[in-house]
Design brief:
The chain is mainly β and 205 residues long. It is built from two helices and 19 strands.
Length: 205
């Protein structure tokens, strides 16, 4: 018998785990959280179907989730841009999938000041970046951040976040392929930052 369940505090932890478990058992789940962008991963689920998108330019905006697809392919000859929507704590957005996500573009970047998350919630999900070879110019973006989360991440393209932040969080395997570019450079500027261990670093392109 299907039940209707309301769960609060679903941004992470016990709330998110309960929402996934009730949904897996076929119940109707209403989830709440302080940050709306944290709810998209709860809606994502895999399946046997494939989704193939091909366009001259792809712009991902806001919080998105796919359902029923085990394989998602987004292919553009131009750039793939990720833009957040305005919330109380700034611009944020996400794309959450329940399978493998293959992305091909000239370059990948978040729009200015946007925090964007690409995530596969599948236990053995893969996110792969590949280059179409059609864009090497610095994107018109600054101070954005991109986080990628999956069991496996394969970086074979050009990911840029000028004067921003890039986080590649793989559970089991992170591959940085020959010829790939992962950069926060603004075109020759000296960038200062700090890694999680607290050691200050400076990089010059």
């Amino acid at each position: 018998m299907q039940k209707t369940v309301l769960i609060t505090g679903c941004s992470s932890g016990i709330g998110a785990a309960l929402a996934r478990e009730f949904r897996k058992k076929g119940h109707r789940v209403y989830a709440t959280a302080r940050r709306i962008e944290s709810l998209a991963p709860l809606a994502a689920e895999g399946g046997a179907a494939s989704l193939n998108v091909k366009a001259g330019l792809i712009d991902l905006g806001g919080n998105l989730a796919t359902q029923g697809f085990g394989q998602i392919r987004l292919n553009t000859a131009g750039d793939l841009r990720m833009s957040g929507l305005a919330y109380t704590d700034g611009l944020s957005g996400s794309l959450s999938v329940g399978g493998n996500l293959d992305l091909t573009a000239g370059q990948f970047y978040p729009s200015s000041y946007s925090r964007y998350l690409l995530e596969s919630v599948a236990p053995a999900g893969r996110i792969r970046f590949a280059a179409s070879g059609n864009s090497t110019a610095a994107p018109l973006s600054a101070a954005g951040s991109l986080t990628v989360r999956a069991d496996r991440i394969v970086q074979g393209g050009r990911i840029a976040a000028p004067l921003g932040k890039i986080e590649l969080a793989a559970n089991s395997l992170l591959e940085l392929l020959p010829g790939s570019v992962t950069t926060t450079s603004a075109g020759g500027d000296i960038l200062f930052g700090q890694h999680r261990g607290g050691l200050a670093i400076a990089g010059v392109e």
